[in-house]
Prior knowledge:
The chain is an all-alpha fold and 234 residues long. It has helices spanning 8-18, 23-30, 34-41, 62-70, 104-114, 120-127, 131-138, 153-156, 161-172, 180-183, 190-195, 199-233.
Amino acid sequence: MAQTLLMPKATAIWLVDNTALSFDQIAQFCKLHPLEVKAIADGEAAQGIKGLDPISTGQLSRDEIARAEANPNHKLKLSEPKVRVPESKRRGPRYTPVSKRQDRPNAILWLVRNHPELKDAQISRLVGTTKSTIEQIRERTHWNSANLAPMDPVTLGLCSQIDLDMEVEKASKGRPLPTAAELGATLQSAQDTERLTPSYEREEEKEKEIDADAVFRKLSSLRSAPKDEDDDQY
C-alpha cells in the first residue's frame, strides 16, 4: 500500500512554525503549491487549523528534518511505518448461504423481468451469481427453466432493499425518459380541448332537464285534479 501523508495542510503549518525548511521543500513533502505554503507562513491561509507534528505521528524523523535544513535541495521522505496494514482483498461476488442458493435462479428471473435495465454485473453483485447463469436464465436455457418462478430477492433475503434501489438508480442514470407513445397516452390538440364541454356543465344541464320534467308532471297533475272533482259532483 502506498504511503500517504496524514493531514498535509496541518503538517505544513507545523513545519513552517517549527523548522527552517524552505517553502519548496515543505510544498514538495505536503503535496502543496509553494505559494500556498507562503500564504500559510504569512497567515493568509489555513487560519484556524492546528499544526500536526509529523514526528509524533511517525511519518517524519528529526534526522530527516535536519538533513533537509542543511541541504536546500534535499527532498523530505516519509519514514517507514512500524506497522504494515495488509491490503484489502478485491471484493468478489456476494456470498450466499447454502440454504438460500437454490432460490437464486428465482431471484435472477425476478430481476430480469422487473428490472431489465440492470446489467449482469449488478445482478451478480445483488444475489451472488455468475454471468453465465444470468445469461442462461435470460435465454431460457437454464437446466431448471421450466420450474423457475420469479421471486423478489429482498423477500428471499438475498439482498437488502437499499442495495436493490441503489443498483436500479445507477442503471437508470442516463436513460432517456419514456415518450408519450411508450406510456400509451397522447395529448389532445388545442382545438379538440376547446370543443369539449366541462363535466360540471353537463351535469348541470342534466339536472335542469330533470327538474323541468318534474315541474311539467306536477302541473299536469294539478290541472287534472279539478276535472275529477267536477265529475264526482255530477
